[in-house]
Design brief:
Helix content is 38%, strand content 8%. It is mostly helical. Among the domains are: 55 residues, no CATH class; 52 residues, lambda repressor-like DNA-binding domains (434 Repressor (Amino-terminal Domain), Orthogonal Bundle), CATH 1.10.260. A 3-stranded antiparallel beta sheet has the order 2-1-3. Helix 5 packs across helix 6.
Length: 186
Amino acid sequence: MDFCEICGAPIRGKPYIVYIEGAKLKVCEKCAKKADSIIEKPTAPQPVKTQPARPFASQPSHARSPSHNQGLRPRPRPQAPVPQDTILDENYGEIIRRAREERGMTPEQLAKKLNEKESVIRRVEEGKLRPPELLINKLEKELEVKIRASPPPSPVSPKANNDGITLKDVAKLRDEARAYRCSSIL
């Protein structure tokens, strides 16, 4: 018996094969209505034999794995956006290339050690690709270099004197304005 890949309900008869958001799925009639397009409709509903419910653990392994018995690959999960707030040294590519060469490694060898593609390493070294945070961490650890730039000095520095207005001054002005308005009403 097939189960709907959307709602998990048992499918009576032959399932609908549909595309939903680019994924090919086997679904029940109810969920087929939500599909972008229907590839294959069931020809005629077949009678369903009722079986006693079995605990999940006693089911054969192929019945527990929906992608195994349907020949469909799971959709890749969307990657979380990489925060771009890390400030890198402006010569990060050159720093990485020098450190790699000092260790006698090729871009291919470094890529294998970091579990990255060689093309990614080359593009980072050329300065054409800003490495994501995870790759920055891997590179700094493996090559024992620092490619993050030190943060710029804060534009706001503590005041040496108290000539500026404070929150207490604002509250005082607000109270004085209220008192003035109240006295003008009387």
